[in-house]
Write a structure and sequence with these properties.
With 245 residues, the protein is mainly α. It folds into two domains: 85 residues, no CATH class; 139 residues. It is built from eight helices and three strands, in the order βαβααβααααα. Strands 1-2-3 form a three-stranded parallel β-sheet, covered by helices on one side. Strand 1, helix 1 and strand 2 form a beta-alpha-beta unit. It is elongated. The protein binds fe (ii) ion. Fe (ii) ion binds next to helix 5, helix 6 and helix 7.
């Protein structure tokens, strides 16, 4: 189970929380825990059942704050998931570190999109603005992710993987996802089939991610690809693309 830690900070850090929620099963955050009580962050946490606890070295005051935060968050959450957030101020400083291995980078993208799909599913039909915002973010993240894979990752690993059928299938799956993405971007929540299209996209992506993580990535690792150098190339390419909405 991955654990990510954060340097204590006085800056409100909603972006950090977003990354944290998308990265791993277990998260360790630095304070200020007050951030968790902000409405924006509560919105980010929607759809996840968030447990908060102190670690070794956590002060009594922090424990009391955690208890209050846990109560306020538990009011905001109804769905159960495996996400666990531990808040402490005694931990390290790796939180902002980007994955430096190409596969870890792609897996982090997968986790982020999965979390966004879960957030979407947790929204009621009346939350049209939030639905649109999250669906558009899903589309943007997936578009960038697919470009990075098609332009940089797939060409670099196709040879070492030695499975053209698998690689071809991945490209075709991207093409099909892109068609749905183009339709979803043009639509609004409330339009006929909007939710169905987002749902089908999530199912297609789940299948695609399963094949990548279950079949392709293990073959890439066996293929002796320099995943650190490839990650650098992917990051550089990503920077040339439009930022996620
Ligand atoms: Fe992919």
């Amino acid at each position: 189970m991955a654990i990510t830690t954060a340097q204590p900070t006085d800056e409100p850090d909603v972006e950090l929380a977003e990354v944290v929620l998308s990265l791993a099963d277990t998260f360790v955050l630095g304070p200020p825990v007050a951030d968790f009580q902000q409405p924006t962050l509560a919105e980010q946490c929607r759809g996840a059942s968030v447990a908060i606890g102190g670690c070794k070295g956590t002060s009594q005051q922090t424990v009391r704050t955690l208890a209050r935060t846990r109560r306020s968050l538990s009011n905001a959450h109804t769905k159960v998931s495996t996400k666990l957030i531990i808040v402490t101020h005694q931990l390290g400083d790796h939180m902002k570190a980007q994955p430096n291995d190409a596969i870890a980078m792609l897996e982090a993208d997968h986790a982020k999109v999965k979390s966004l799909f879960e957030q979407f599913e947790g929204l009621s039909d009346r939350s049209k603005a939030s639905k649109k915002k999250i669906a558009d973010q899903i589309c943007s993240e997936l578009t960038i992710h697919a470009e990075v894979e098609e332009q940089v990752f797939y060409p670099a690993v196709r040879g070492p993987v030695r499975d053209d059928d698998l690689m071809d299938e991945a490209v075709v799956e991207h093409a099909s996802a892109k068609e749905l993405i183009a339709q979803i971007i043009e639509m609004d929540p409330g339009d006929d089939l909007y939710d169905a299209k987002v749902k089908v996209l999530s199912e297609q992506i789940e299948h695609h991610v399963g094949e990548e993580e279950g079949e392709m990535f293990p073959k890439v690792r066996k293929g002796g690809v320099d995943l650190i150098a490839l990650a650098e190339e992917m990051k550089a390419f990503k920077e040339t693309l439009a930022p996620a909405a």
